[in-house]
Amino acid sequence: MPRYAAVDCGTNSIRLLISEVLPDGKIRDVTRLMEIIRLGEGVDATGRISDAAIARARAALSNFVEQMRFENVTAVRMVATSASRDAENRQEFFDMTAELLGQIQPGAMAEVIFGAEEAQLSFRGAVGDLSPDKGPFCVIDLGGGSTEFIVGDHTGDIHGAYSARMGCVRLTERFLPTDPATPDELAAARDYVSAQLADVAKTVPLQDARTFVGCAGTFTTLSALAQGLEKYDPDAIHGSIVRFGALRVLLDHLVKQPAASRALNPVIHPGRADVIGGGAVAVHGIMDLIGDATDTNSFVISEKDILDGIIAGIVDAAQ
């Protein structure tokens, strides 16, 4: 059975999905891995990816390539977003990925994707396990440097999409330097989020959506916290429903905690503990945005996202 790999490298983390195509045509996960590499550390201020960040990315991607070789992966696609789009020395990063990924598939390297394609891939992955009659859907992919909003039908027909320049790392580095953040810092971060979301409201038909789907690390971690899980459990998180009222209480608690206290919780990855406060500010604003446009009061949380969309695309191309 053929096995394929997808890699997504964002501002905060790099992630791997290896899947295989079963004889009946269904796609089965073989392994999912994630490492916090903080590729975007300092990029917002300096315009460059630091040498240390590139070294962290190389080490993580080398591990992923070893895993691909062990699982006999025959094709791979890697996408890179936000930090690698913005950095002036991005070619150094892309050359490194070509060196490593070429061991799996000659000519493979990270590629920057934009706009429509990123929306299509993220949306396809996030709604794949949801019932079509729950649509139209609004998928919200909250990353380290940006947050994507995509409204569409289960068929993949996209009604509107927008990428807002706000994410857990960007907000933390720009507005929340104190640990824990001061009231003035939180107010400045919330004002920035509100300005970004005003553009979302003008661009994306949120009022068309019946179901709002939150994906990526901030949302999945918040679901684990809201459920009171003792360890991070993807099966319990995927498809879970998190209601806005309970989430607001949780977010207010999170932003008041120092990073060291957050890191003690077993469902919060140590590399996410210092930036999830920025994610909390973003989610708070997103709930206000949704409340203004609709009568929705909950998120459906998806463990699936752009990685699953990439795999589906590889499978389509191979058929």
What features would you highlight for this structure?
319 residues, alpha/beta, Nucleotidyltransferase, domain 5, six-stranded mixed β-sheet, five-stranded mixed β-sheet, 13 helices, globular, ATPase_NBD, Ppx/GppA family phosphatase, Ppx_GppA_N, GppA/Ppx_hydrolase, pyrophosphatase activity
In a nutshell, what does this entry contain?
With 319 residues, the chain is of the alpha/beta class. It has 13 helices and eleven strands.
How many domains comprise the coordinates? 2
Q: Provide the low-confidence segments as ranges.
A: none
| Helix/strand order | EEEHHEHHEHEEEHHEHHEHHHEH
Radius of gyration: 19 Å
Could you give a short account of the major beta sheet?
6 strands, mixed
CATH level 4 superfamily of the largest domain: Exopolyphosphatase. Domain 2
Total of DSSP H or I helical runs spanning 4+ residues: 13
Per DSSP, what share of the residues sits in E-state strands of 2 or more residues?
15-25%
Shape: globular
Numbering strands along the chain, what is their spatial order in the largest sheet?
Answer: 8-7-6-9-11-10
Instruction: State the separation between the terminal residues, measured CA to CA.
Output: 13 Å
Would you mind describing this structure in some detail?
By secondary structure, the protein is α/β, with parallel strands linked by helices. It has 2 domains: 3-114, ATPase, nucleotide binding domain (Nucleotidyltransferase, domain 5); 130-301, Exopolyphosphatase. Domain 2 (Nucleotidyltransferase, domain 5, 2-Layer Sandwich). The chain has helices at residues 43-46, 51-70, 83-86, 90-101, 115-127, 168-175, 183-203, 217-227, 234-237, 244-256, 259-263, 276-293, 306-318; strands at 3-9, 13-21, 27-36, 75-80, 110-112, 137-142, 147-152, 158-164, 211-215, 241-243, 298-302. The strands form 2 sheets. Strands 8-7-6-9-11-10 form a 6-stranded mixed beta sheet, sandwiched between helices. It has a 5-stranded mixed beta sheet with strand order 3-2-1-4-5, sandwiched between helices. A hairpin with a 4-residue loop joins β6 and β7 (147-152). It comes from Corynebacterium incognita. InterPro entries: ATPase_NBD, GppA/Ppx_hydrolase, Ppx_GppA_N. This is Ppx/GppA family phosphatase.
